[in-house]
Amino acid sequence: MTASRLVRLMIPCLALPGIALAHAAATGPVYTLIAAHSTLTYTFIQAGAANQGRFKVFTARFDPGAKMLTVVIDMRSFDSGDAQRNGLLGGRDFFDVAQFPQARFTSTQLRRTVGGYVATGALRLRGVTRTIAVPFSWRVIDSGGRQVGLLDGTTVLKRLDFGVGQGQWRATEWLGNAVTVRFALRMTAAAR
Amino acid sequence: MLRNTRARWGALSQLFHWLIAALIAVQVVLGLTGVALPLGMAKLATLARHKSLGITILGLALLRLGWRAVNPTPALPGNLRPHERRLARLTHAVLYALLIALPLTGWMMSSARGFPVSWFNLVQLPNLLSRSVPLYHTLVRVHVALAITLGAVLTLHIAAAIKHHFVLRDDILRRMLPGAPPRPMGTLPSAKE
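ok -> structure tokens follow
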């Protein structure tokens, strides 16, 4: 056995403790979405009145051990409750779902708070990526012998930060800039 | 004088009358403009103002009816024939009913469509109905029919006021005008002249 061969054999051995350490930080279950029992809604103020809509298709993955929260939203699945408004919001001036069919939030940092967490990370929406903070409560309950995680929270975004509202729709007097996003996610524990 | 007398409308009744009259004129313009505009910010703004003013008229109409209930109503002139009295009373009753029904059906329309009503961006009003597109379309037809009825009854109301003032030369219009004293009783011509 040559010296160079010995070194090559040793490399995996040297690397192993590093892998083990990285793994040690990410223990415990990973939670994935139970879509049928989860809601994701948005509310904006139009001419002084709250208008609510929802996203019907989205996925979420929460890994408390690795401090990772990921949410992926199918932007084509939104419903504002009105056919005419759906046409407008899905079009180029708002969500532009043909060009930007997906929105994604990926946390880069997770901080514990009383009763929950604040996930800070990148939200990519309508082709624009911005850092947002998403506070949420988290509790794990036992549901018929299964571990079910309940992830609830609210965050307020500014639609114009993401170009939601082009041209005349940039004005905020009759269509508020603030959009409240509410989520109530029911998640099931899965093996890592 | 703030209160009505048997001979003349008081200042508050006059204010209700002319304020609501002016708001109705604005409502017609806002309503027709709002419907005609393409979907855009101007349409949202116009319809929002139409809703706010409609709710204002509803409130004013209720206050006006309350004030009318606790005040004497000036008597109709003695030169009216019985069928004219009935017509005058019916016209006024229909006008009051429309001042309530038009804003209410508008509010119901917005509720059924799922566009809640706000009063001047200050107060969001509760939805009167749950969301239903077929009901919305029915309510639009009712709202428009009531608006056309209002136009017809107002035409009759204004024509009668003009006839009383310029042809019969009585004080019907003057007693609803601020500052204008009633014509002296001696100069009132009778209908038979």
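The two ends of chain B are 33 Å apart (CA to CA).
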